[in-house]
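ASSEMBLY PREDICTION REQUEST
Request ID: AP-0331
Submitted by: J.K., bench scientist
Number of chains: two
Total residues: 580
Priority: normal
Notes: Please return the full assembly, not individual chains.
Input sequences:
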Amino acid sequence: MNQILNFITVNQEIIYIVVLMIFVGIEVIGRVPSVLHTPLMSGANAIHGVVIIGAIIVMGKAEADNHLALILGFLAVVLGMINVMGGFVVTDRMLEMFKKKKSNH
Amino acid sequence: MSQNILTLCYLIGSITFILGLKMLSNPASARKGNLLAGAGMAIAILGTIFLYKDVETGEYLHNYEWIFGALLIGGIVGTLAAKKVKMTSMPEMVSLFNGMGGACAALISIEEFNHLSKEIQTNPNPDYIHFIQPTVLIIVVGLIIGSVSFAGSMIAWGKLNGKVKDFSFTGQNILNLLVLASAIGLAGYLVMHPAHSMMLYIILGLSLIYGIFFVMPIGGADMPVVISLLNSFTGVAAACGGFLYNNEVMLTGGILVGAAGTLLTILMCKAMNRSLKNVLIGSFGGNAAKVSGESSDFGHYKEISLSDTAMIMSYANKVMIVPGYGLAVAQAQHICHELEKILTEKGVEVKYAIHPVAGRMPGHMNVLLAEADVSYDHLLEMEDANEEFPTTDVVLVLGANDVVNPAAKTDPASPIYGMPILDVELAKNIVVNKRSMKPGYAGIENELFFKPKTSMLFGDAKKVLQDLCAEIKNI
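STATUS: Completed
Returned structure:
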């Protein structure tokens, strides 16, 4: 019990961020029209590509002679970057269609 | 100084993610929102590369050539894939990208654990092990969620492009739970005894298997919901990385997507009038095989020729087009717009009835038809369309099946029972274009095709529409 309380105190900032972000996440997309479900999912998909930052840190910390670490890290950065770039570009392409529709009419 | 700038970069990143997501949920600002979040991401990435200092050693990152090489390869592959993909296969592309993110999170966990287990070997005293236990817990959670998301997304991707078939067997749900439970059990063991490093790979294997089995039995019609759910999983996996490195932008981005993705999943279920539990455990594919096996006893269907179709359409007052996945596969959206123009010139009122989940994802048809310049106000949402069907002379169903299946209303045993459908039956004539009599994605027969008012027009949607346009011009 003491250990848990201690953990909460030590990590209180992180716990605050988590709790607040859950509410923010729910709040910001609360009233999305169903037409935008797919682009929104795709946009959120690109945002969780932020995991690439972890991959970059892993990669950048790896010792130059640790080949396994270098290869795994390299792979992680490549995959993360595909997630980020692909995610944002694909979302943009979807939304481009919506914009064209508006200006046409 | 540099650390303060990095903090600022992360703060900017977090704020752009929140604003971007907010703007993405409004049609007018969506595109800007996406670009804003992208810009924030770029700032966070560049900040990390040049300003991040290791907490333990206080050194800047190195291996720049590797990092930039990987960024370049990933960037080019991602951009090309996203640019080249056809509008019709957009959904599976999202699933694929999501899988990459999951795999990335899993790889980070593996690498961090390898790093830790080396430390344990050189420093095996209980105090140190006690000290790193929370870190191991986060690593394992990230590994499980990331690899489930990766394996699941790959299966979802394969299912949407038809490479993976629905597959289920009795007791699969129980087996799934067992696999998941043993992965979690082993994870608990590993946290208690971090020196048993091989355990990590067994957990990895079990999580991958669980990811595969979890998505396998879920039918294609429910795939958008599953992808959205896996999307929020990857968000949580990214947040685990945020815990690991005490990194605020990963934490905010990950949790934000985790929460928003979960809500989005629930909203999608609501749009289809199904509960999430139903989607995940109701396993579409399994029941459907049984249903389609026994029920082909609706009588006979009748075919209609192209010239007859052209005739009834050009003399109609109002024509309603119901697009479905068949239109998307055949890339027939442009010729569909052509047909609309020809009919409009002849004084026929043409409208489109869009089911919320027509195609493979919510909004899929809107995107496709918008690509072909179909005007926004000709697209009717389901409720409005259902009001107009009684005054419609001809309904042309283009490669849609489950969304017009009356079984959703009448047959409680049907796997799609309860899903709102387009009431095309209310119209005077129904022409259904399909490639064959094969059942739709949910794998069930459609009674509509056997109704007296319904006629079948077989063939590839694009070819049929081209011929139809030519016929109508000749009348």
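REVIEWER COMMENTS: Chain B touches chain A through 114 residues (CB under 8 Å).
SIGN-OFF: pending second reviewer
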